[in-house]
Design a protein that fits this description.
about 120 residues, mainly beta, four-stranded antiparallel sheet, about 55% strand
Amino acid sequence: QVQLVESGGGLVQPGGSLRLSCAASGFTLSTYAMSWYRQAPGKERELVADISNFRGVTSYADAVKGRFTISRDNAKNTVYLQMNSLKPEDTAVYYCKARRGGAQYWGQGTQVTVSS
């Protein structure tokens, strides 16, 4: 059964850091491009970061560039999102997505709240 499970969300103060994890099961993550999305209340889901499959080329939304880092550990079948210098506007539910060709899979999401 194909499954993506996010973890690592929580409450953090502005300026703090969190590392999100997305563990895959039922498929080989290394052959899929992986992305992190987020959705804040009342807003559309938006792409935050992306990493390609074999070459690991990364790209980021302007709002997080220089603060967030996406990475993958193919041996652990896991992708990560390191988030530094967090801001209140980063508050959202964060989702990971795997895609290859016409197939795509989503995780259930993990809540990140940035507040003092």
